[in-house]
Amino acid sequence: MSCFTMRYRPAEELRKLFLPILVAERVITYCGGGIASSSDAFILHLLGHQNVADYDGGSSSGRSGSNGGSLIA
């Protein structure tokens, strides 16, 4: 996203930036609160990636589970 216009950059520029990720079979995006990661997931989807997921609520969502709420990759 451009800091000046608050719009996404052109698709070809995004494709160059995301190229190392676009070749992955599956991508799961995550961040602290789920805001930045949802934007990345949206961009990957727009660029044609077919298997993208976003960790709902981010890594600090406070979910409890067998691993204490930690994200395991």
**Could you tell me the radius of gyration in angstroms?**
14 Å
Whole-number mean pLDDT = 82
Distance between the termini: 27 Å
The number of E-state strands comes to 2
The poorly predicted ranges are: 64-73
Write the H/E string, N to C.
Answer: HEHE
**Number of distinct helices:** 2
Percentage of residues in strands: 5-15%
Largest sheet properties: 2 strands, parallel
Order of strands in the sheet with most strands: 1-2
As a percent range, the share of helical residues equals: 25-40%
Global morphology: flat
Structural class, from helix and strand content?
A: alpha+beta
What does this protein structure show overall?
The protein has a domain at 11-54. The chain has 2 helices and 2 strands. It has helices spanning 11-22, 35-46, and strands spanning 27-29, 52-54. A two-stranded parallel ribbon has the order 1-2. Helix 2 (35-46) links the parallel strand 1 and strand 2. The chain is flat, with a radius of gyration of 14 Å.
